[in-house]
Design brief:
This protein is α/β, with parallel strands linked by helices. The protein contains ten helices and eight strands.
């Protein structure tokens, strides 16, 4: 993977195109489109009729480094699947025959582009986005999508309770972060992903990459699916990350919360790396090495 260019939507599409040319095992469809009409790629390795693990990166614009990390895994897995080599005692070629890996490398392309490039001077939504950002033309702290909605609070999991917390924090509309939207799945990005999950009953586990803190969330309130705590402990040993239960605003409306509550199946949020968001791109390789074994092992756990 290119570790020198920020993973905006265009560079992400270019990187995916290169991977598709190199690895016939890798297939691509479209999950849907973002608010501003950018395509949201969905990559697949294996037969979706088989037990499936779904990997998702870049819910948040400021966390586009997770796109690079997840595409590094795709490249690594595809390269090894073309051989009979083992990694961590796992033969990826065998995994590809018996499991399905579905990958959403960049759920929020609009947010990533805003965080990396800001708003072009002739953008038709410039004034609206500036309003959401408090009039500040600096979007380096931007997490939300192009409607000022924090996608990882836009799922139907404790939505009403989260709305009360929003009001307590003085959040009443579009903002750089934490605004959950008008209703669950109000945004095309989350609606497309949730719809895809509902249509594919073989999705047995979800891994979502965020930054930062080196923690692994595995519960939603008091709801912990069977085997989730055990798997989280295993991932913790592999990564050095601490299995944790989210608190405060982090405990509502996320993909992990929704999947656990809706399907009672394991889902994990990996808070990758340490430091201040946005993490510098030169940390991507270190993050990938830290979570690599967990990413390769996950398909064997479903």
């Amino acid at each position: 993977m290119d570790h020198t260019h920020p993973y905006d939507s265009a560079h992400t599409q270019k990187a995916i195109g290169t991977l598709l040319k190199r690895f016939p095992i890798l297939k691509m469809t479209s999950l849907g489109q973002s608010v501003l009409g950018r395509d949201i790629p969905l990559l697949r390795i294996g037969d979706p009729r088989k037990p499936t693990v779904l990997y998702v990166a870049t819910h948040h614009g400021m966390e586009w480094i997770t796109t690079e990390v997840l595409l590094s895994y795709v490249e690594d897995f595809c390269r090894l699947a073309g051989t009979e080599r083992h990694v961590y005692g796992i033969r990826p070629s065998c995994v590809a025959e018996n499991r399905c890996l579905c990958i959403v490398p960049q759920l929020n392309p609009d947010g990533a582009d805003l965080q990396i490039h800001g708003i072009p001077g002739n953008d038709p939504v410039r004034e609206r986005l500036l309003f959401y950002n408090g009039g500040n033309p600096d979007f380096t702290r931007w997490q939300a999508n192009a409607r000022g909605v924090d996608l990882n609070h836009n799922y139907n999991a404790g939505f009403a309770a989260y709305k009360r917390l929003e009001r307590e924090k003085g959040i009443f509309g579009g903002a750089p972060t934490r605004f959950s939207g008008e209703y669950p799945e109000s945004e095309p990005e989350t609606a497309a992903l949730a719809s895809y999950i509902r249509r594919h009953e073989n999705i047995r586990m979800i891994l979502t990459l965020h930054t930062q803190g080196e923690e692994i969330y595995y519960s939603s309130g008091d709801c912990i699916p069977p085997s989730s705590a055990r798997i989280a402990a295993l991932f913790g040993r592999m990564t050095g990350y601490r299995p944790s239960r989210p608190e405060g605003m982090a405990a509502y409306g996320g993909l992990t919360d929704w999947f656990i509550q809706a399907f009672n199946r394991p889902a994990f949020t990996f808070e990758c790396g340490r430091g201040q968001n946005p993490l510098p791109q030169n940390k991507a390789s270190d993050i990938y090495e830290a979570i690599r074994e967990a990413l390769f092992t996950a398909p064997l756990l479903v």
